Task: structure prediction
Amino acid sequence: MTALWLAITVWLAAWALNVRLAGSGIAQTRLGRILVPLIFGVTVLVLWEGLVRGLNVAPVILPAPSAIAAKIATSLPVLWQDFAQTILKGAIPGFLIGAGAAFLTAIAVDRSPFLQRGLLPIGNFVAALPIVGLAPILVMWFGFDWQSKAAVVVVMVFFPLLVNIVAGLQASDRMQRDLMATWGASYWQSLLKLRLPAAMPFVFNGLKIASTLALIGAIVAEFFGSPVYGMGFRISTEVGRLGLDMVWAEIAVAALAGSVLYGLISLIERWVTFWHPSQRH
Amino acid sequence: MSRALPVVTVLAGIVAIWYAAAVWMNATWAFDQAERAGQTVTWAEVIPQTMDQARPLLPPPHQVGAELWKGLFGQAVTSKRSLVYHAFVTFKGTMTGFGLGIVVGVLLAVAIVRFRVMDMSVMPWAIISQTIPIVALAPMIITLSSQLGLTGRDIPKAVIAAYLSFFPVLVSMVKGLRSPDQMQLDLLRTYGASDAQTFLKLRLPASMPYFFASLKVAVAASLVGTIVGELPTGAIEGLGARMLIGSQFGEPLIMWASLFAAAILAGILILVVGLIERIAGRRMGVRA
Result:
């Protein structure tokens, strides 16, 4: 029980510290903005560890963070193999192909307002559908290896991205387009120099949504058949064997991969859309 | 009419592409059959054969439509083969998760707007939580809840659905509760309003348009979560479980029919939430 009380004390102390930090001048600085959530995250881990140790929770219900960390440290090669199969071969190629296809489709229908008016409501509707349901069908078509995972990801990211890009291409003002017209800009010039840059905030919004969908698609597709490695495969088999520390290790890798992908897209966004009000601090 | 025409045109285009793809994908099987029988067949003979196979690679639209019709209206709605029955199971899971997601999202948003320390420590983690592929947790949530003595699949499904649907509500509510501008806040202060009064009479009403806008996203996310919760977990009821059964028994028609049933359910849910949004908006004096 002492472990539990110790953890609760640490948690209360850290929370009090956070309250003080948030109220003080440090909260305005960049350091404070990173420090406060970091302290919160660490205290959650401490509390978790204390709960598991103090209440003697069985590892088949909830392993302690220290046990998960130990598992990660001892099974790095397996984790890397799964990561390479699911993320590098399944999610990322699928993400790139899907994004490319959505982009080309958006440009292709750009000249026809008629097609756009037809495509936008349908795209919006399809983007809200549970497309993951296609996973078993695509696994049947493309086999068990990474090709089927990439195909699921392509279908999942295509519609949210298409809708965002089409909406983005309409985002420039009438005034700005008139200005391009008075300068005698051709369709392609005005597309490249005005409308595409103006669409970028929408595009990145879509890419961020799609990055999460890509990971979900790649992992779920593996539940329907995969080679004997891959994150989805490992999770479903380890759950069957009650090896929950390995499951949590895979989840930690998935969370890390998801956050890095999201962070990477945000970084590129800051670089491309530096002119947008939301990026100017 | 001018709005329906483009949509109908695009839909017709999709159906046309679908038929072409069905002929192309199913033709291989038809050619194989003919070759095994030692015959040569022409395309003109193959095309009708691609339209009504029992286990097509890609069923053409009319076959899916027929299977869907059979599933929806072919038997009593209480039958285990009825898609209405399975859709209702999924609908229940969706609503539980949706309700849970709304409660969690709104409560967190209120705490985040009220306490600066919550804003600084919880908000970044709420964003990170959405980059975690929740489906990775699905099999584990199910073992976990059965270890804790919770039988049945409703709770794990609802947890997954709530996890996906709380986020849009949280983000919109934070934005909405902060939407009153300084002038309005100052006015309430000159009235001598307490914090609770400012919250109830200004912030909460001001956040309602944001709240309803987020519900449409949240209900779709909740449905996705429920179906994902049914897919890999050996559930026997619900649209996700139907898809799984179709996949395991090699019955593509069942898979496609339940996929479209899920699409119809999604459409109905979004329509209903949109309707509630419009009614609530009118009651609160939003001009249409």
About this structure: Chain B touches chain A through 59 residues (CB under 8 Å). Residues 83-283 of chain B form a domain with the MetI-like fold fold (CATH 1.10.3720.10). The two ends of chain B are 21 Å apart (CA to CA).
